[in-house]
Amino acid sequence: MSDVENKVKEIVVEQLDLDVEVSELSNSSSFVDDLGADSLDTVELVMALEEEFECEIPEEDAEKITTVQQAIDYVTENA
Amino acid sequence: MSDLFDLTGTVVLVTGASRGIGRDIAETLAKQGAVVVGTATSASGAESITDYLSAHGGRGAVLDVSNADSVDQLMAELKGSVGLPTVLVNNAGITNDKLLMRMNLDDWQQVINTNLSSIYLMSKACIRGMMKAKTGRIINIGSVIGDMGNPGQCNYAAAKAGLIGFSKSLAREVGSRGITVNVVAPGYIQTDMTDELDAAQRDSLLQQVPLQRLGTTQDIAQAVLFLASGAGAYITGETIHVNGGMYMS
Ligand SMILES: NC(=O)c1ccc[n+]([C@@H]2O[C@H](COP(=O)([O-])OP(=O)(O)OC[C@H]3O[C@@H](n4cnc5c(N)ncnc54)[C@H](OP(=O)(O)O)[C@@H]3O)[C@@H](O)[C@H]2O)c1
User: Which of A72, B72, B109, B181 is the most buried (most CB within 10 A)?
Assistant: First the structure.
């Protein structure tokens, strides 16, 4: 697992308060459909990514980050 | 019982703390142990706030609540010093009274910006820190006029009624994170403003108040303390009217 992937997964597990190991988290998991996030959770998740990777994620982009893989891709390309 | 009102170590931000109601709120919360940052629009105003808060570990700061850059600047400064507030008291407010027919767009916008848009700006700036802390209190100072209306105050009443809807919506958004959002709505409070009334005006005013006196800034500060402390933990989206009975919702 790359550093970015690992870090993103750590953040997801922490923010969504998941009861799984980082290594068990599937890249295709959808925050809302698979991981039980509500709309406020997804906003918080994006805020946490912004802080960790020191970037600003515009609203239009934030809306498109709905799965673990999408978060990894976004951060890899933009941070 | 006294423990319930203890705020030791809590970082509190009170806007408009240079005088009147805001000053008393800041002092009252500071006496309960909170680290209070109180704001004024000028550097000299901020200094005078530091004078009365420093004994309790708090201080003054400069802020124009109607200006987004000014809000950002203050938040950055707080983040690097006392930390982000978990209690926000949106108290700063102005009046600019005119009959609607004489009220121009500037008169309207100035009051809406300072009394209502400020609540959006300040709450948004503070909510992130509160979400992280998984606790927070936002207390907006409304007015009985927001419920009753008053000739000459279309702008002011609109802003004060608006912040009630804002508070109810935000209370629903962030309740799951342990953050409460409430309004304290003062009636007629003895401040510089009401000192200007003559005896006849005062008498006619008091006829509307069952408790037969003007309110004091302490009456308001105590209600704010109640909501800010553990005692008010299960209250959210609510408006507490502190008006001696002149209006009962
Ligand atoms: N007094 C009453 O009877 C009464 C009744 C109902 C509701 N209220 C509400 O209670 C609150 C406080 O009233 P008050 O009578 O104590 O007011 P006040 O004595 O006139 O003090 C107003 C405070 O707001 C600050 N302020 C004004 N414009 C600002 C801006 N653009 N940015 C930041 N701060 C600003 C002032 O700072 P500077 O000193 O730097 O100007 C001052 O500290 C207001 O929201 C008011 O609507 C009051």
Answer: B181
Q: Rounded to a whole number, what is the distance in Å from the CA of B175 to chain A's nearest CA?
A: 11
- Torsion sign over Cα B78, B132, B220, B188: positive
By the CB < 8 Å criterion, does B133 face chain A? no
Q: For Cα atoms B71, B19, B86, give the angle at the middle one, nearest 5 degrees.
A: 45
ipTM for the complex? 0.81
Strands (E), chain A: none
Distance CA(B214)–CA(B201), nearest Å, equals 12
Asked if residues B118 and B142 have their Cβ atoms less than 8 Å apart, the reply is no
Whole-prediction pTM value?
0.94
CA distance B113 to B144: 19
Tokens standing for B199? 């005896």
Report, in angstroms and rounded to the nearest whole number, the Rg of chain B calculated over CA atoms: 17
Q: Which residues contact B102 (CB under 8 A, 6 or more apart)?
A: none
d(CA B141, CA B91): 5
Residues 163-182 of B with CB under 8 A from A: 173-174, 176-177
pLDDT in tens, B188-199: 999 877 788 888
pLDDT tens readout for residues B95-139: 999 999 999 999 999 999 999 999 999 999 999 999 989 999 999
Of the residues A16, A44, A50, the best mutation for testing chain B's interface (the one with the most B CB atoms within 10 Å of its CB) is: A44
